[in-house]
UniProtKB/TrEMBL annotation:
Organism superkingdom: Bacteria
Compositionally skewed regions (Low complexity) per UniProt: 121-130
Name of the protein described by the UniProt record: DUF3325 domain-containing protein
UniProt biased composition (Basic and acidic residues): 134-146
Length: 316
């Protein structure tokens, strides 16, 4: 079998950036809140400095000196948000994330200004027709029961609904942040990911779901694995296979990883004699014909799977 075979000490391989894996860092949700707060602050300051929006928010037009100060504070906040994104998520991921949070912040500010309580004055009341007065008196009790805002005068009622809409708009970033915080973590971004190098190609390998294996319709235990090679070397790889127990040859290397090159997946069937000292073998075939293999003990690759098989064998 051409090529080399690496075993043990797998977790110390990936430490490079020139050919190493490039993945979006999984930072704490507080960093997202920081970027959103900086973006909201920057857009709000720029809105105060503008002619039309500033008059709505301040009930007057900002002076030239005030506009200069607001611009001097607003633009640096947006640039600071960009700097935080690039520092925390690198240039490519950070820029995209920055534009995403700018969109959320700009939409929130625009909609908040559109429903600002002091934006417009209520239209003068028109004298209703006699038939309208009779209908209004007849349905007055129903209005009081159906809506609390019906008890308010027309002008205060408009302010009430604007406040309600403004509060709903203010909660949009909170809802977005909550959904982001509770989003499931990508398998290849979890701390339990296996780092390795097959020949010259660094990679990451991880279970799709931590926990016991899934039973197929015939009662066969199966498990899905994700594999990702470095961005620069992915095109040099022809195929990759995964198998429990050492393959006898490349023709019996196991399940082929399929899907996008950036996220290969393989549904592996687990033998009934899987134990802690069993080995999970990854076979990588390069386009140059070389073959490289990496192996892990099953209690390192998937402790939950070993525990499940141990419990199952104890019941038999």
């Amino acid at each position: 079998m051409a090529g080399g075979m690496d075993r043990g000490g797998i977790r110390t391989v990936l430490g490079r950036t020139e050919r190493g894996l490039v993945m979006m860092p999984n930072l704490a949700v507080g960093w997202h809140w920081l970027v959103l707060a900086l973006s909201l602050g920057g857009f709000m300051l720029l809105a105060l400095a503008s002619e039309r929006e500033g008059k709505v928010l301040l009930s007057r037009t900002a002076t030239r000196r005030e506009k200069f100060i607001l611009h001097l504070l607003g633009w640096p906040l947006l640039m600071l948000a960009l700097g935080v994104c690039i520092w925390g998520w690198f240039g490519h991921f950070g820029t995209v994330l920055w534009f995403g949070w700018l969109t959320v912040a700009a939409t929130t500010v625009v909609l908040a200004i559109a429903y600002w309580p002091g934006r417009g004055q209520p239209a003068p009341a028109r004298r209703p027709l006699p038939s309208q007065e009779m209908g209004r008196e007849r349905g007055a009790s129903d209005d009081r029961r159906s809506s609390p805002a019906a008890l308010l005068p027309q002008g205060e009622r408009d302010v009430f609904w604007r406040l309600v809409l403004g509060a709903a708009l203010a909660l949009l970033p909170l809802a977005f942040g909550w959904a982001l915080y509770h989003a499931p973590e990508a398998p290849l971004a979890r701390p339990d990911v296996l780092h390795g190098q097959a020949g010259p190609w660094p990679f990451r390998l991880a279970e799709d779901r931590q926990g016991p294996p899934t039973l197929a319709p015939l009662g066969v235990p199966i498990k899905t694995w994700h594999l990702r090679f470095c961005e620069g070397c992915d095109t040099e790889i022809r195929a990759a296979y995964l198998k429990v127990h050492k393959p006898r040859s490349t023709r019996n290397a196991g399940t082929l990883f399929e899907g996008r090159h950036w996220d290969r997946r393989a549904l592996v069937q687990l033998p009934s004699n899987t134990a802690a000292d069993s080995e999970l073998w990854l076979t990588v075939v390069g386009r140059d014909g070389t073959v490289h293999q990496v192996a892990w003990r099953m209690d390192e690759a998937s402790p939950a799977t070993v525990a499940w098989f141990t419990e199952r064998q104890g019941r038999q």
